[in-house]
Every structure is written in C-alpha cells, then in structure tokens.
Amino acid sequence: MKKLCVAAMLAATLLGCNVGDDIVDHGGIDVDNLSQADLQNYADVTADALTVVAKAVKDCAENLPVGNYNECYIPEIQGNIDIAVAKGRIKVEKQADRVVIHTIEAMQFTTHNAITNGEVISFTLDKNTDDDYIMTMNNSNQITFKGMFVNTTENDAKYWSTESTSPVTYRYNINEVHPYITNGSAIISGKDNQYFTWSADADGDISVTR
Prior knowledge:
Structural class: alpha+beta
Helix content: 10-25%
C-alpha cells in the first residue's frame, strides 16, 4: 500500500493514502546533514509557496458568503517570488471567523532555488493525504498550516513537510512590490523526525535555526 501511495504522490494525484507524515518520516530530507545554506533555501521555497497559495486564497474567498465554498486555480503571481506555477487548485470554505483551505490538485511549480535546480515541486494541503493537512486564514489574515512538499522529478524523490508553530500574517496591497508573510514561525520536518525552525519577521525576511 505504501508503495502505491508513493507512486500516486509522484504522479501528483495525492489521493486516498492518508500516510503523508509517514512518508516524510521514512523518505524525507536528511535535515541533520544539510548545510545552513540548504536550510535557508528550503525555508525560502516553502515560504514562497505558502505565499502564493495565500494570495490565491484571498482572491478565491473574496465576497464569499459564510457557509459557502469556492474552488479556484492557483495562478502565478508577480513580484519577488521565485516560483513559476504550473498547475494547482484549491477549495476554500468560508466560516464566520476564518477560511479553511485544502488543495484539490497539488500545486506544482518550478524555482531557480539551489536545492531544486529548476525541478518540479508539488505542494499539497490534501486532507486525504493526512487528516491534518490544512491551511486556515482568519479575518486578520493570520495563517496556520500544515502540508507536504515533494520534489517529484528526481529518481530518489525528496519529501518535506512544514507546520506552523505560531501563525504567520499575509500582507499585500497594490503599493507593495509583492505579497509576503510576516511575524510567525514554523518547522520543516524530514526523515527520522529531524526538523528545523524557520520564521518570518515584520519585513517578511525568512530566517532559520536548527
């Protein structure tokens, strides 16, 4: 069953397996043997991907009545974000105090980031992969999240998950150069329960600590 789930993930279907954390724990990145530069690069890719999804959420949930849901494609956004979106689709559900987000189709993207060398990455917030893979955005644009990334084009695929430890805040207006996330922290996990922390400051700069 696990091999079938891995195959499904590599094909970016990511449906029906419910073993996302288990796959990361057994086949995830080797955090303890990454350089500081690699840690920074993983954090930058992760933060950029979350920002792209957050922008899609804001657009998709705009004027959505409480109790309703909407489904939207994840578009490429302009600005100082090194991600080219190939495809992806989200479902947003409007509640009184927040929006709940899952991916219907994993976001697939490429980046020039050194850890990926322009290869295809998939990002999923699919509750069918794991029950707690989800993003929420409250009415103050504070975001909590847990999801998984897969470098899908390598023969030896690389997996990592990210989970917020304190909410990040999404910021964007037409006078800003690009959307960004601020004032929060998260962990990135790899194999054997290895992890490190990344955080965003008030200016949206991303830093990492082991």
